Amino acid sequence: MEDDIAHVNDEHLSTEKVLMVMQNLTDLLRLTFPSQFVFPVLGNHDFYPQNQLPPRRHPIYKRVADMWRHWLPNEAIDSFEKGERLSCEFLDYLAFDARKCVP
């Protein structure tokens, strides 16, 4: 899951609109696939203003981390909230490692 927000000019968006869309999608995925793992990643349009994801703590990271907490281990949440890469290990043979998807 990443880059969920419409590709429109910032004048049509706000932080609250971006977070509302992300919450709606998160809820839909949890309801539709309750026993499946989803690896969430922020895309460059999943932030307001677009393409401005800071490499440090930011209130939006905290709010998004709270949405995704049920999918991710605590150490991944901690890294995500700091603006760092998201890394998770599952089983002995499966791992995910992603930076926020910014061009």
Structure description:
- The protein has 103 residues and is α+β, with helices and mostly antiparallel strands.
- It has one domain.
- Helices cover 35% and strands 10% of the residues.
- Strands 1-2 form a two-stranded antiparallel ribbon.
- A hairpin with a 3-residue loop joins strand 1 and strand 2.
- The longest helix is centred in the N-terminal third of the chain and has 18 residues.
- The chain starts with 14 loop residues before the first helix and ends in a 5-residue tail after the last strand.
- The model has no long low-confidence stretch (mean pLDDT 81).
- One of its GO terms (cellular component) is extracellular space.
- Keywords: Glycoprotein, Hydrolase.
- InterPro entries: Metallo-depent_PP-like (IPR029052).
- It comes from Ladona fulva (Scarce chaser dragonfly).
Features:
phosphoric diester hydrolase activity; 2 strands; glycoprotein; Calcineurin-like phosphoesterase domain-containing protein; alpha+beta; hydrolase; single chain; Metallo-depent_PP-like; 3 helices
Classify the secondary structure makeup into a structural class. alpha+beta
Distance between the termini: 16 Å
Element order, helices and strands?
HHHEE
In DSSP terms (H or I, runs of 4 or more residues), the helix count works out at 3
Sheet with the most strands, sense and barrel status? 2 strands, antiparallel
Structurally, the number of domains stands at 1
Instruction: Determine Rg (CA atoms, Å).
Output: 13 Å
Percent helix, as a range, is: 25-40%
Q: Which of globular, elongated, flat, extended, rod-shaped describes the shape? A: globular
Low-confidence stretches: none
Mean pLDDT value: 81
Order of strands in the sheet with the most strands? 1-2
Keywords: Glycoprotein, Hydrolase
InterPro entries: Metallo-depent_PP-like
GO molecular function: phosphoric diester hydrolase activity
Organism: Ladona fulva (Scarce chaser dragonfly)
